[in-house]
Amino acid sequence: MQIHTVPVTPFMQNCRIVVCEKTNDAAIVDPGGDTHKLIAKLNRLNITPSTIWLTHGHLDHVGAADELAREFNIDIIGPHADEQFWFDALPQQAQMFGFAPRPAFLPTRWLTPGEVLTLGELNFEVRLCPGHTPGHVILVEHQNKIVLVGDVIFKGSIGRTDFPKGDGPTLIASIHREVLSLADDYSILSGHGEDTTVGHERQTNPFVSGKFG
Ligand SMILES: [Zn+2]
Ligand SMILES: [Zn+2]
User: Fold this and answer.
1) pTM > 0.70
2) Nearest listed ligand to the Cα of residue 192
């Protein structure tokens, strides 16, 4: 497995290009914007993406998904259906975040927890992690021990819960149930900031370690 990280939008959102090296299948995870930058990166890598996966409906994670889907004639998969109001509100999100005006779109299909997304010989387990947003999903690849967590947890921090339908206790519960239940040596790939590990966050993240407040 190869993972290429491309920070997009003024929010420096980590778009990930995930590649199965055995079959050359590639997924674009959370293409939040900067469509031309992403296409240039794919061209440089000589990669033709086969799918787009979304963790949640915030504009900095989905903003380029519709353009890339059209460009490569591929599907947009996820997140969970509880996220639809964020997709319906994409024009308002653009206004709220100070992005260029844009139309709404919906993914090709929603994801359900427990489902497995295959990419060549890689398998990603879908886990539902509400709290930052209600239909936020994370994607776990057990063979390579990585988890794509979007805005659920960051190195030393957790996702904001002050958006509509956000909820702090729900987010903490999601993190314990779906992220910290993984072994310490799983890598956490977050939507913003540096990569970390389950063990590091279990030990040091002040929001979940129980060592503070
Ligand atoms: Zn978000
Ligand atoms: Zn974000």
Assistant:
1) yes
2) 2
